[in-house]
Amino acid sequence: SRSLHLAVIPGDGIGQEVVAQGLKVLSAVLPQDVKLETKEYDFGARRYHATGETLTDADLDALKQHDAILLGAIGDPSVPSGVLERGFLLKLRFAFDHHVNLRPSKLLPGVATPLAGQPEIDFIVVREGTEGPYTGNGGTIRKGTEHEVATEVSVNTAFGVERVVRDAFARAQARPRKKLALIHKNNVLTFAGHLWTDVFNRVAEEYPEVTTEYMHVDAATIYLVTQPERFDVIVTDNLFGDIITDLAAAVSGGIGVAASGNINPSGAFPSMFEPVHGSAPDIAGQGKADPSATVLSVALLLRHLGYEAEAARIEDAVAADLAERVGKPARSTDEIGDALAVRVAG
Amino acid sequence: SRSLHLAVIPGDGIGQEVVAQGLKVLSAVLPQDVKLETKEYDFGARRYHATGETLTDADLDALKQHDAILLGAIGDPSVPSGVLERGFLLKLRFAFDHHVNLRPSKLLPGVATPLAGQPEIDFIVVREGTEGPYTGNGGTIRKGTEHEVATEVSVNTAFGVERVVRDAFARAQARPRKKLALIHKNNVLTFAGHLWTDVFNRVAEEYPEVTTEYMHVDAATIYLVTQPERFDVIVTDNLFGDIITDLAAAVSGGIGVAASGNINPSGAFPSMFEPVHGSAPDIAGQGKADPSATVLSVALLLRHLGYEAEAARIEDAVAADLAERVGKPARSTDEIGDALAVRVAG
Ligand SMILES: CC(C)[C@H](C(=O)O)[C@@H](O)C(=O)O
Ligand SMILES: CC(C)[C@H](C(=O)O)[C@@H](O)C(=O)O
């Protein structure tokens, strides 16, 4: 019999509530012969306040033992900005070399979008996860004085760019439309921009069936609201990916349904799956949070581990649930989780 | 009698056509006693191909003699990406210390927006223009090899941040709603982020009437499509400003009506005004380009030089013209320019 060893990090705010639903649906969808073993970790604001720790080497060793990680949300207003982001979220992405940050955007039937005319949106963003302006390189001199200088260094390597570009081409090749857009700002950030563009064009030669285009990040934000149907697969840098995936989530149904995977395709370290939304402390503990994004993240997790049929069942269940919501009174986090668990078991 | 010495840079693609309309409307709106003197400069792709030059020291000396600069668009597919951007547009911004990059977004009646429900949009973005990731710092080693490393350095100084933050507070204080949002990514770009946040909070103490908020750039893209009415004045870094102002233009009527000023508030160098759109080579020479963005840039130019009444007359004329377009056949670039000239003279 098979087993799935899952590290569970509920985290802060609504993280607890939504992760509970994710696990509920996961248990319901898994084949009988798969033994699910979960271990919960207490990372986040509480642990930080109690111990000063965000993510220790021992923590990383423990997490390494699992097949995958499911995370709710990390972040709380009581912790200074940057401490948990750099000390936990980014530290984990870097430590486990999560270089493929996968973020699908699909506008499902019945789901509200701020865009007029209900466009057809169905694309995925492959965001680089371990380089660019996220490396923490840089520094400050003369802090707090009128002569302060603060720098941020975006670091980009052929190695790092090529592996994520290859991943994106492979994903584009496997989709019916076979389209891939590179998004950067190569007319201004010419050093990094040329590296990305060169690697992209070189790898493109190996994928003659994939139609490619290049787009500046500023222009991309325009297309995301005026012609989102034009996108199929997008590959982009860490920071641009951060920005455009929030916009992509907004236009394709909101961050209530936006899932993501922080993937190490080699399998050398466990991959981590999380909703794009944060801890939303304003609605935490009220049973108001929509667990759909977490449940869809569980689908990405299952697909990553080879459970394709189960992933698809979850996605279908969420789509059906969203379609049926129209005009109905709002349900609680728990009620939505129950409904999804019933559907996937069905 | 007064005079206005204007440097005119039609540039590439549709630049020629739209600048002609801007000048037409400028002539029509200026008081009788103001002597308008224009001098045209041939910067852009043609000059680059003919001479290899983008913007020489002699050019800068010549431009320096003018009261202001009106630019159409610079950029052509025949020139490698980055050459004209870094060699002309950014070189000019840096040389003339255009640190306030002003970009208003107002959704005018009758103007189409990709957003559902025709929200009320009326805000301005004060984008820093001379620092951040735009400085050209960085470099490449082992170019073209599998070991290539490319860096981009974002440089941020207390001096540079404070002056643009002060400009934004003064603008917020002068507007009815008196709201100012700082947009950054201070949870990841902690060095630059802390500098921006510290300076912002310090200057805020001098403006007790201004309501402030901080927002991450990724979250800002969500609010720009779900709640654009929440914004009044935004102050942000060079790159974030580049990205969100294209999105802002898209939601508030498109880049056909988005104006901008590259302003040196001290007056030490002439300021430069330009439409946000580029050279649009695909429609160049066909009389299809909407000159409204250029005409609105002329309004910003006039306001900067103290011609407030004339600036307002142009803005009213463009608003009236746009409102009357609904359901009418499309007019040519020239026809729109003529109509606006008649209105402002009226
Ligand atoms: C919280 C933050 C570190 C993170 C990021 O910037 O990557 C978040 O915005 C995301 O998109 O996952
Ligand atoms: C053309 C490019 C250099 C420029 C920028 O990035 O600033 C443009 O996008 C803009 O917004 O004015």
- Indicate the CATH architecture of the largest domain in chain A: 3-Layer(aba) Sandwich
Q: Taking strands numbered 1, 2, ... along the chain, how are they ordered across the largest sheet of chain A? A: 2-1-3-12-11-4-5-10-8-9
Largest binding interface between chains: A-B, 67 and 67 residues
Q: What is the beta-strand fraction of chain A?
A: 15-25%
- Number of helix segments of chain A? 11
Give the helix level of chain A as a range of percent.
40-55%
Oligomer: homodimer
User: Outline of chain A, from the CA principal axes?
Assistant: globular
Count up the domains of chain A.
Answer: 2
Subcellular location (chains A, B): Cytoplasm
Pfam families (chains A, B): Iso_dh (PF00180)
Subunit structure (chains A, B): Homodimer.
EC number (chains A, B): 1.1.1.85
Describe the protein's architecture and organization.
Two copies of one chain form a homodimer. Chain A is an alpha/beta fold and about 350 residues long. Chain A is built from eleven helices and twelve strands. The first copy, chain A, has helices at about 15-30, 45-50, 55-65, 85-95, 160-175, 190-205, 215-225, 240-250, 290-305, 310-325, 335-345; strands at about 1-10, 35-40, 70-75, 100-105, 120-130, 140, 150-155, 180-185, 210-215, 235, 260-265, 270-275. In chain A, strand 8, helix 6 (about 190-205) and strand 9 (about 210-215) form a beta-alpha-beta unit. In chain A, helix 1 (about 15-30) packs across helix 9 (about 290-305), helix 7 packs parallel to helix 8 and helix 10 (about 310-325) packs across helix 11. In chain A, the strands form two sheets. Chain A has a ten-stranded mixed beta sheet with strand order 2-1-3-12-11-4-5-10-8-9, with helices on both faces. In chain A, strands 6-7 form a two-stranded antiparallel ribbon. Chains A and B meet through helix 4, strand 6, strand 7, helix 5 and helix 6 of A and helix 4, strand 6, strand 7, helix 5 and helix 6 of B. The complex binds 3-isopropylmalic acid (2 copies). One 3-isopropylmalic acid sits at the interface of chains B and A.
